[in-house]
User: Fold these one by one.
Assistant:
Number 1:
Amino acid sequence: MRNENKEYAWHDGIRINDVQLIALAMNAGSYNLAEHYLLSLLAHGLLYQISDYINKVNEVREFYGVAPIPAPKNNYAEEPKPQKRDIADKVRKLYLKMTAGEHEELLCKSLATLMDSYPHLFKFKNHWQGIYLVVKDRLDYGLSQQEFLIMACKATPKGWPERLRINKSVVKNFSRGIQAAEAEGAYYEIADNPQKQLCDAFWEVLLTVIMMEKYGADTELV
């Protein structure tokens, strides 16, 4: 039985369950983004001599259509492959069970983590548009702009730059862009989403916070 240090891989300054690390890689959206998680997984496997991590990495590579890393056959018992849509659906169900106060707490923690981990991505007030689209398209399809405005005002972290605070004017200024995005579908289906990098990073943060901080590291999403 693996001990705690072996169970949790070191990733970007935090310990994360190896199963959840694979789930994050599966849900990254592209192999280029998924590779960031796989490097942490491989490093952890090398450190603790967990040979089956190569097979798990190859599952993710196969998921994205990337050639596998040569590895010995039958060196671990196969497990069901986590499906990207299943993970997103389970996270959404967790979110919808939360109270309004918990939604605000989640948004506050996620925004603070975003600024700490990706300080150069949220530069302008209209970047609230990307935050709104991620919450709406990933977690709450019925979330209106006005509802998001109320939640975001309450959830803005302490120390958030004054020039980047959301208000009614911010919502009015980016409403046209949101309508255009909605007409084409979810933000992650838009080929030329100008805030793609921010959206991808914030979804990664939201997913991690929901799994680790709100529901604990032992939450099973696959």
Note: Residues 76-82, 217-222 have pLDDT under 50 and may be disordered.
Number 2:
Amino acid sequence: MSSNSNSPFPNAEPPTNLTLVTPKSEPVDENPPQFQPPAASPPPSADVYSEFNRISELFRRAFNQTEGAASALPDSHPDSRAIVLVPDPQTQASDVVVVPEAPGGSKKYPTRSSELVRVTDLKPNDQSYFRDLIRRARMLFDSLSVFAVSEEEKNFDPTVNNRKPRGDLKASALMRQSGLWMNRDKRVVGDIPGISIGDVFFFRMEMCVVGLHGQPQAGIDYVPAAHSSNGEPIATSVIVSGGYEDDEDSGDVLVYTGHGGQDKNLHKQVVHQKLESGNLAMERSMNYGIEVRVIRGFRYGGSASGKVYVYDGLYRIVDTWFDVGKAGFGVFKFKLVRIENQPDMGSVVMKFAESLRTRPLEVRPQGYVTLDLSKKKENFPVYFYNDVDGDHSPVYFEYLVTTVFPPYVYSVGGSGGCECVDGCRYGCFCAMKNGGEIAYNSHGILLRGKPLIFECGPHCRCPPTCRNRVSQKGVRNRLEVFRSRETGWGVRSLDLIQAGSFICEYTGVVLTHEQARLFTMNGDCLVYPGRFGHRWKEWGDLSQIFSDYVCPSYPSGPPLDFAMDVSRMRNVACYMSNSSSPNVFVQHVLYDHNNVSFPHLMLFAMENIPPMRELSLDYGVADEWNGKLAICH
């Protein structure tokens, strides 16, 4: 972990002053199914579809060769805590697992480490280092998942196969074979460096990729006794997702029912549980005083898996007993108590945000200046909250939903629109303008960042529900402008925002060069979009998976050479903080005109953003005193 040479992202700076405490050795555990490596792709042609076809071919070959492996994992994420049986130790005595790669060859993958460690005394620069590693790994996982599902949807026939595409399985397998699974060289007890309390995951496999929870199905992740140095299993993390009727969850105190003896279809006990495997591991962790990570799962309609998982921090197992459950069968129960002085539980924050969406004044009677800064101009109200001081200046600006361009921008001739009366498909006119592909999947998630995206416009025959009309529809989440003592103004969402989702437009009044000079002399607030960081290149970057991946260069436009006045008219985006590790990026989009020199600045999520977490942008140039964009000149 402390060696930069073992990092899946070697360009980051390594941490310093890490303290690793090793209580005992740990065995090798089971390995998830392996995918065959992708075949080499042909060089791109000069056709406008070349880049799209080349990337699609990479995915098609990689995924088609691994169809058998993918079917080895389940089609859903059950609540079952049945622990996978530990194979005979003699069958896993080696330090690598050999899986078929191709006829006549083999591929070796390192197995999970047998060393238990606890990472302590991380300095701020170390925390930033690990956070960036986790962030980049999760962004790659999300990008792969979205693109994989999109590839399957092209040829999906519900009459032949009604199984939902499993992009999470394919993304995790491709990352596995590329050596990008994290925390495999050592298994971490306690907090995983780089993962924060409140982080949200849409898939169990993503937690496996980053090492938060190493079992794709089981609720208890533990060191099997057969491989432990002292012959005793040790539990490291648990998932609480409501699958056991005898669980009792009050937040800081959790009574967790052991695994085994349950009918997975009825979600009821049908036989007595035994003190073995994960149950014994929980008891041994209590005996040794080893903390466990607790992840809670919730039903969530916006997730492909039907659930989300949120990391709630560290707990200690303080008691265990054998009891008669509600179904009349014996069950083991474990009492877990949350360790003090940790940030608020992510599950509590999510429930708090949910209550704010419906009962804001009841939940927070003090601090709200207005419940809709946009004055009903947005699809959802924009809250304005300030319990720090009396600064109410945001209410005095005129709220601007979309950017105001000079009239001459619309005089640039267009080339017509698509004829897709039922919605755009691959190969249509608008897809051709985007390099041969639709920029979004069927759920409105951006597949990958591009220099420029053409959405369907007023000359297209497709309906408002067309999948190529995403950012032009406006805000889809409940946003809140707030005041902070540390950083000044900020923006957060009351909803969970999925990676790749559209958030809002960065709006202002576009100025000519002459106008910009006058406004600068008057000291008005100007924003220079050309200085924004090109973070769009990171979303959908598959270079870690495919060595010949090339960053999209089409469609393209000239460098942005205009300013935007936000001194009198602006929207919620103007209050977003600047960050060198942002969770929001700018994507240039055209839809209402065809002048490539003046695109809309559309903001998309770089990662899964939990409710109440501040949104941040890379403005490129920030004020050195407060970390905000220096928009006043």
Note: The chain has two domains: 4-343, 352-412+430-451+466-541+555-617.
Number 3:
Amino acid sequence: MLTVLLIMAMFGQGQSWDNLGKDFITAFPENIAFYYPLNPVNALNITALYNDTVVTVSIPNEWTYEDTLPAGKPVTVTLPLSIENYLLGQTLQTVKINSTHKIAVQSISQRGDSVQTNVVQPLKNLGTLYYIPSLNYSKMINTLYQSEGKSAKRFSSFRLVIINGADTSNYVRIVKMNEITPYILDPYAVLQLQTNGTEISVQSDYEVAVMLTHPCLEMAECRCNLVVNQLYPGTQLDSGFAVPSILNTSNVWLHLTSSTNIIASGGNLESGTLEAYSAKLLSLPSLQSGSQFISTSYPASLRLIGPGFIIEPIPQSRFSACYLVVPVSSTHAKALVIAETEYRDSVYIDGDLLSSSEWRSISNSKYSSVIVPLDDTHVIWHPSTTIAVYMFETGTNVYGGPAIALNEKPDPFGCVFTPSKFDVIFTPQTWAESHHNCMDISDELFNPSNKEAQMEMDTILKSEGLNEGLWIGLRRDLLTLEWYWQKGKKVHNLTYTEWGAGEPRVAAHGMCASVFPNSVMDFQWESVSCCAQLKSICYTSTHYFPLYFPISKEKDSTSDKNDHIA
């Protein structure tokens, strides 16, 4: 069975990944010991990508919040005190987030100076198989705090939190080496169990979210801090990790989880074979002086473990083109950026290049890393390659982890959250009807207003096997008879043409234009009567994250290319 699980995970590598969605579910485990004198503050930071995004946050049978959010500005939603879940077993203490357009969600759990943030994964990122790190938690806690001479703790173990992401009963199995314990989770329910480190995986019929938490690791002077690690599904294993230095924090260990024996290497990591589901914590002293690259002989998941945090580094296969960083505190927030050394000088923060002389090469890799102070919410992105971005904040402890991934695919003009697309409309309509229909379902009746756009259209139409005329957004002026582009509600002059032989004909034979019904002719244009009934091709242009003015507009406000080429 374990071999089958490993194969399943390996086949899943490389799938597209971002943290955006319309549907989310999460839970808020107990942050701190019940006797602490300050009330908890549990909240969500929600960032919409489109204006007028309607967001609904609800706790089943208890509480509902609804608001219409602007694009690009994080909004904090404070939750009722009752959402904090300290009881073991199954409850409905979950938070559902739904929206009319894509959003990003970050959870915040705070009590006094104990703070924990977490990127909430949309339902589309949840899975049915998770590998559980087989840690000896008591030994780990004693190891972490041996320098302080304190190992007291509210509980002797971590908690395993499983959230049902389905609107139906979900059959969940917790797998140990020699036994399987089944549970039936109610729709959108949460199951919280104590774990002793013998669990090796969670399997379910429908998608679930899985977290490891510890409510109160006591620090110096009896301070407490929530530890939370939201696990990635088993399909997200990898064999290469650019591991961040966590702001040079001391007492950091690595833990690798795999369902087979593996060899890990990198930095001055101790060598040797790690057995499947090893509970061993690996020392990596060089991580205190800079980021390191860790390789494994087979796909695995890796965690950084230290006082008050467990962080799952971004695997190399899940690097993205752009990230959103949303600090809770603007005075102690920093981003750690990892980029290919050859392209590190092209990293942007919002609309400006990241200018820094502090880049440091990561040994035995093609990457470098740099730490950047954060004063507010920002987008960090690269126009031509993928990067990794972490956000950390410091108070009594360091907290944070991977930033919010917005898009995997690089774009030279900004941080894309909706790529361009074509829609062929097979219902014959007049030119005017086609134009209004495209305005309703996308951005415009397509305008191949430059050579690149014409070639892109040719490729799409040939792949669809189309060999007939389709309306494009080109027509004549009724008074001057000059040709112009109708781009949505705007009019643009005609500067590029791809007319077929003998085209365009006189106005009496056609005031509108279609692509020529012959793919061999590379879909050249012809003039047609605007009342003719033809199919059409609609186009949705690339949409960039709205936190800043896209570079595409600043570079060339008159260029047609940026309107059509992602």
Note: The chain is about 10% helix and 45% strand.
